[in-house]
Amino acid sequence: MTDTPWLDRRQMAAWVRFVAVLELLPGVLDSQLRRDSGMTHFEYFVMAVLSETAGGTLRMAELAAATNATLSRLSHVVQRLEGRGFVERVPCPENGRVTNARLTVDGRAKMRVAAPGHVATVRRHVVDVLTPEQTEQLAAISEAILESIEPSGPMAAGYRRHDGPHGE
Amino acid sequence: MTDTPWLDRRQMAAWVRFVAVLELLPGVLDSQLRRDSGMTHFEYFVMAVLSETAGGTLRMAELAAATNATLSRLSHVVQRLEGRGFVERVPCPENGRVTNARLTVDGRAKMRVAAPGHVATVRRHVVDVLTPEQTEQLAAISEAILESIEPSGPMAAGYRRHDGPHGE
DNA sequence: TGAATCAAGTTGTCGCTTCAACTTTCGCGG
DNA sequence: CCGCGAAAGTTGAAGCGACAACTTGATTCA
Predict the structure, then answer these.
(1) Sheet containing A99-103: which strands, arranged edge to edge?
(2) Of A92, A101, A112, A120, whose CB count within 10 A is highest?
(3) Dmax of chain B from CA atoms?
(4) pLDDT tens-digit profile of A51-81?
(5) Of A31, A93, A96, A99, which Cα lies nearest the Cα of A71?
(6) What is the pTM of this model?
């Protein structure tokens, strides 16, 4: 740690290109969704996660873990989504300190309309420009990076290998 | 485009993991630099690009292209960096509408202090968790993604094949 | 030469994220 | 049971980036 070797030429080249992706890709996703559906990619992702759960409901903490967000960020976002009628917040009756976020009918409809354009964007800029092998490689690379991040990340792990603390 | 196929299971898995990286990694980079050096990753990157040019000087538009930023964003950032004494803005005498950004002595010193910790972070979370082959793969994947983005991106390409900074 | 056009930057505003502080609720040991 | 600490959320302030409007200087061309 006290003496970290510099990056060699190949490592540096890869890193610089990767940083460019980190910088540009989120903006591309946001632009498309904002333009076509009036929402950010993060908002879309939050609603997408909800839409895949039974009942379209998830506790805030679990939703935060699933979307890689802090509870604070999620709280603000859900507040905005609630204002637009796409999500509603329901205090859990059994446990006084948990809040359930639930996708509304309007929210589900919104997702049906927004999804095709978003998927097309993901295809155009990522999936379709990679070979099947590269897609596998990207998954493995992402996994390796996440493994080094998440234990100390904004959310302690424990979600990824979901043994289902919340029932299916 | 009117009928885009959904992502299959493997594509979806890869995308979800990659989105997590997109969401978490920038925060990790920012946190370390903010904590140890009081600057953001983007500020660091701007100064790093400057430090690698002869004279530590670059026109705003070129600096924007090299850092994948809009001119607007760069303008704000350089303004802040100037306020802290790390960069100075020098109007170009030959061309009245260009502004040159130059790294100051303080800025260079700042980079010398900040670099090791940043490199260590990049290693810990990216370079050192990948095999050499994966590093090459990441470079190729990034390149493919960028190629699909940059032509229509915030900055038209044309920088990457740099014929020399002050070429005209 | 002079109007139109484009390029290079800057600036102000707004929205989103972060950070820190705070509230409320649950669980646990004494 | 009582008190204390951790868990779950919420909130307000501050900072950064996106966007649009604007200024100013260079080009073009009729």
Answers:
(1) A57-59, A99-103, A87-91
(2) A101
(3) 58
(4) 999 999 999 999 999 999 999 999 999 999 9
(5) A99
(6) 0.90
